[in-house]
# Entry
Amino acid sequence: MKQRIEEVLEEIKEFEISGLEKAEEFRIKYLSSKGLIKQLFTQLRDVPNEQKREVGQLLNGLREQAQTKYDTEKGNAEFSEDADGGMDLSRPGDKIAVGSRHPLSLVRAEIIEIFNRIGFTVSEGPEIEDDWHNFSALNFPPEHPARDMQDTFFIQKGGEGQEELALRTHTSSVQVRVMENSQPPIRTISPGRVYRNEAISARAHCFFHQVEGLYIDKGVSFADLKQTLLHFAKEMFGEKAQIRLRPSYFPFTEPSAEVDVSCTICNSKGCNVCKYTGWLEILGCGMVDPNVLEASNIDSQEYSGFAFGMGVERIAQLKFKVNDLRLYSENDVRFLNQFKSGI
Ligand code: DAH
# Structure
């Protein structure tokens, strides 16, 4: 009996467990209820009494060794099969959420592209602006209502050697900065965020986005302005798009106009977005007031120019048929995911 135990012990030591299948084979052969070790335990009955204790101990040792070997080798096999053998290369990978560009970025990029193609560069200015660039240089009289706290977020009071600072209320401030730093010909657009002290609703927000345009050279006329804007409307909304100009007033342009584009949502038939007029206002524009040119050291006798400012949200609204302004800044992925494929 002792010899038999020795033999089995040798066998166990030499048994190579090289995978989960082999481990199972080992378990069945030695450790299962019908396995070799169990059988040896049954034979213990026939061992003479004086040897029972010794043989019993040997058998227990044998069982322990077999169990330890099985546990360790099975663990190893499981680990290595997980690491490589268990890998299924044909399984689909984990999904990675792909981001997308914000609808306002898409529209801004398209506006820039359209104007780039006709020779406009891009210029930018600060969102925290002084009184000169946001108002005075643009010919706003001191008592103009836009300078009121009700409309503008002032962030630093003026006086005693301190400049008055506010969040810019329009990108027209960048016009002034460009004119101060360069001489005509100037052909530039200035995209950016602007701020106004307004209650947030579907139709108004305390911040939104504009693209300013400025063209100054010798002999620039109102006809150039009109044609440039018609070209823009057709590039942006399609060949069928029409524009109309309505006389208006801005301190920094003379004459001034507001521009409507034919409603793309109802094809000018009339809908609730265009309030059944067939037209939607998209921008303000005009010929740069000589006072504005002079304030930035440009000779108004020699040069003339036009300027315009459009709302990016308004263009996006037409492009994507989105009616509620708040959606653009709420960052709801269910909204943002809809713009994956671009324009
Ligand atoms: N700054 C104006 C606004 O915020 C828009 C505007 C109107 C810009 C006429 C211009 C312009 O450059 O010529 O409503």
Notes: Residues 49-85 form the longest helix (37 residues). The first strand starts at residue 121 and ends at 122. DSSP finds twelve helices and ten strands in the chain.
